[in-house]
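At this stage, I wrote out one protein, both as residues and as discrete backbone shape codes, and that material follows here.
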Amino acid sequence: MTTQERAAVLNGALNRGYEEFDGFILEERARAQAQANAERNAGVPGAAGASDAGGAAGGGGGQQVIVTAAPGGTPSAPQGAAGAGGGSGADEQTFPPPEDIPNGRDDDIVARQLREAAMREPDPELREKLWDEYRKYTGTGV
């Protein structure tokens, strides 16, 4: 086996490891978000069976992952949610990706962080710059 073939085999194993690790991260994010939703809804009268009930039950939908706040992110991030339960929906608003952006299923960690930052960015100019960085990083355009 040549060194290039060995390198290709090792790169494949490394990529599989990254995918497995990313899966663990996504599962933990979904679990943490469901727990935060349950805790937030426990303190809001009448909200227990409302909008976040599916996420609190561990439904595992893709939207949960997109809505989670990055560490040190918005002021209403789950780690600082002591009294911010009522207005947190507006702070966690997401914006759809542009038409030329793929679904992101094969993104590595950096690409996923760029994607999530762009989808959460309320400023259209900064959001477009983040998408440009995503395109450059992933090689999908620009």
